[in-house]
Amino acid sequence: MVNRVKYCDVCETFKQWLADNGHRFHLKYKIRYYAKRNLISIHFENVTPELHCYVSEGNVGTYVYFKGRCWDFLEEFGYSIRRSRNRKYDCRLCLERKYYNTPQELLIEHSFEKFLEWVNENFTPFHSLELSQCQGMTSARIIDISEPDINAAKREAFRDFLAGLRKIGTDNPPAFTNLDKMKVLFIPVIRSKETKP
Description:
- This protein is α+β, with helices and mostly antiparallel strands.
- It is built from 3 helices and 10 strands; from the N terminus they run αβββββββαββαβ.
- The strands form 3 sheets. The chain has a 5-stranded antiparallel sheet with strand order 1-2-3-4-5. Strands 9-8-10 form a 3-stranded antiparallel sheet, with no helix packed on it. It has a two-stranded antiparallel ribbon with strand order 6-7.
- A hairpin with a 6-residue loop joins β2 and β3 (51-56).
- α1 crosses α2.
- It is globular and about 55 Å long.
């Protein structure tokens, strides 16, 4: 097990970065800081409440909470800071090393900027949250609904792939025995003004 050294406070660094860069998000947002858990929760205006964005020690990301449970993690910009022999900082999770002068620089470029870019690309009226469930297993992804035919073809290809797994042989029990029970639900990422609570 690797001993983690805390080089800086991720929540404080995020709040400082947000003060200078929050205007770059395409949507208005509110944050809530949970000091005891060292966690920031981020809620974007008009974004479906199933999408939860967060900043915590080791991670910046988005997950889906649906029907009383965590359905899936959509995107994570995880990090593990270490100080190298050259007295600079890098992320031990990355295969390609990139060095930063401070741990704050690493957090900003490695995680915060990527999170901002991902949110701006995916939290639009042209995207929908696709939730799938089959035999208790759940998954989620954000899809571009401006090209529905491509996404329908991808879903059918995935269903065909799972059906092919059933035919591999009797020695290996299939992961999915009844694909007809697969449920797929689509939720617009941006709620319309009329459906606002």
